[in-house]
Amino acid sequence: AVLADRVGRRIVFGSSFIGFGVCGALLPVVAGSFELFLGVRFVQGVMFAGLLPLTMTILGDAFSGPLLIGAQGRRSVAMSMGDGLLPIVGGLLVGVGWSIPWLGQMIAIPFGIAVLAAVVDPPALTSDKKRGARFRDLGHVFKNLSIAALQYMGILRMFLKFSMLTFLPLFFVDVRGFSPAFAGLVIGVAALSGTVIALGAGRLALVGRPTAWITLGTVMMGASLVLIVLVPSAVLILVTAVAYGVSDGLMGVFTNSFVTSATIPKHRASFVAATGALRNFAKFLAPVAFGLLVVGSSIRASFVLVGIFTVASAALALALRPLEQRLMRGTSI
Known about the structure:
- The protein is mainly α.
- It has helices at residues 9-30, 34-49, 51-62, 65-96, 100-104, 108-118, 131-142, 145-175, 180-199, 201-207, 210-228, 234-261, 265-296, 299-313, 321-329.
- Helix 4 crosses helix 12 (234-261), helix 8 runs antiparallel to helix 9 and helix 9 packs across helix 12 (234-261).
């Protein structure tokens, strides 16, 4: 994704689509050799790595204000639908033929051709600066207090989400005595609730400040993590799961909108990619750090402590006010 700031979104985005599709077509051909198969999958992973950050980046190039927030919400919904539906489709296709799901990835090729033909890069991407100067400029962006607060909010959300996904099912089954099916239902209800709120995020931006929604989302997320391990009944657990899902949806869409509007176009793809790397580290860190907390206390106490800490973190949303002005006015650092 960093290359998109140097050679343009169109070339990197379109080429990644085409490369991903070509690799999908090659997988059945090289399936007889583990080494070749692994190599093709590695290349395909490299191609895929640039796609998700660039969808955020291109939306930031094209929209600002409530339109950007609405577009990020629809992106979130589309990703959730893909996560839920494509494994089902893949399973059905395997019943027809083992190689068909891989060949189905060739649909990315016409998408890539369409991108190369239709996407227009922002004119501000052209720059006479050398690579070192460009990275120094990007480094100055990360020293901004508002940017630091924004990154913290994104890292916190991922830490909480993957801690919940790892330990909450264990709590419900091993501590509360619920069935694994109920634990899965709780996670599913939370995910669905987040998708619904993301769909209406653009309208929410018209009736309230983005920082207010992030504050509300942070408080709700922390409070729901406390309550979900304390409430006595299954019904109240599901209600709390809805609250968690809504808060996660608010945090996801609004923080992504801040990320894509925080920098000028020539730094945007690099900034989005760096943000993604930090969040991925939080995903890795969550089970380890939360697990250590559980070892020193209990799952219930750990969720209560982390939830209280999250509620206190809502105060950092005030540091996003300068970025809020840029988000709503379409200007950048």
